[in-house]
Amino acid sequence: MAFILTEEQQMMVDLARDFARKEIAPVSEKMDREAKFIPGLIEQMAELGFMGINVPEEYGGAGLDEVTKALVIEEFAKVDASVAEMLSVHTLSSDIILRNGTEEQKKKYLAKACQGCVGAFALTEPNAGSDAAAAKTKAIADGDDYVINGSKCFISNMGPDEGDYVILIALTEPEKKTKGMSAIIVDRDTPGFTVPKAEDKMGLRAAPVSELVFTDCRVPKTQLLGQEGKGFAIAMAGLDGGRIGMAAQAVGVAEGALDAAVDYSTQRIQFGKPINANQGIQWYLADMATQTEAAKALTLNAAALRQAGKSVNKEAAMAKYFASENAVKVAYQSLQIHGGYGYMKDYAIERMYRDARIIPLYEGTSEIQKVVISRAVITGK
Ligand code: COS
Predict the structure, then answer these.
(1) Which CATH class is domain 232-379?
(2) I want to staple 10 with a disulfide (CB 3.0 to 4.6 A). Which of 5, 20, 254, 330 is the partner?
(3) Structure pTM?
(4) Is 57 an annotated catalytic residue?
(5) Which domain of life is it from (predicted)?
(6) pLDDT tens sequence across 87-103
(7) Is 125 in the pocket of ligand 1 (CB under 6 A)?
(8) Is 363 in the pocket of ligand 1 (CB under 6 A)?
(9) Pocket of ligand 1, candidates 156, 232, 236, 375: which has the most ligand atoms within 8 Å of its Cβ, to mutate?
């Protein structure tokens, strides 16, 4: 399936590639080492329209489509998976607001999103990972407010100094389980909402991931997104889109690892010739390129279907499953081609290998994607 981009789409993808090469690639190693984005990076991304890529122009965004968003995330991931992840989660939070928010909420939060305030999405809890329906955080109505108590974990885009607002999934009527869950926008500076510390991670080190703690945190009922009791469905439908972003990130990581393998195997001389003059290396490269192209086709297919308003529950799960497993494999093979040098921090593949490993784990493990896919296959829906 070929995706022929419009001039506007192509311009955005070219802009992302150029920005990634000139502004992100030179600082990726530093951001990984220091476990934070360099100051001003997100502001620059906002100025160029990336932070509002999926926000309609009437709210201050670039108003671009799902395919372009996926391609932009892919371009960033080729050089820095942390930046790609930040943008993927941020655009997921904008997407949920766009699909479910009131006009006031859209005007307020989407405008902020475009200006570089970073959004997050909080569903996971210590005992509710794959089993998202087991979440226990409560938001109990009290007059015109909800009073939130509980905690979330592994929340991307939130750190002690990072993150501006979060879409929280919490029980407004605990006895109704998933049908009693609601989606609520919580501003970072709300009293009772704290982010004690960022996690110390193996990869994606520049992108913050944290526990969120809510203690008698009071938010006005006007912060409710969509209807009360619809939070679980809002979260699941949002994740269908989020998984396309993660698949795009995985495609970019695989492409970056493949590029590194091609460069290294061309300049590395052993036995008097470049190592990619050997068929063993050539076959590695052929497999890496073919599988990555297949991952990209699945990803863009899911993106195009979502843009057309179709359900992408199965397609997004397939793209995320295939692309994330492929990213891990390609990063492994690229490091293998680099030999011992690939294990050293002097080579970008060392970071890419660590970054790739999370992708089959978050926004639904590969095993959960297979649950989603097999349910669709069995029921024919
Ligand atoms: N879009 C809209 N609604 C959806 C949906 C989707 N993609 N998926 C499920 N729902 C709705 C269902 O229709 C159902 O509603 P009804 O009760 O009205 O029929 C409700 O949500 C419950 O769905 P289901 O019975 O499928 O829930 P399960 O507990 O079996 O969970 C899985 C389904 C496993 C798929 C879900 O828990 C999941 O995706 N887990 C992984 C979570 C995850 O990705 N976490 C990543 C971290 S994000 S911070």
Answers:
(1) mainly alpha
(2) 5
(3) 0.97
(4) no
(5) Bacteria
(6) 999 999 999 999 999 99
(7) no
(8) yes
(9) 236
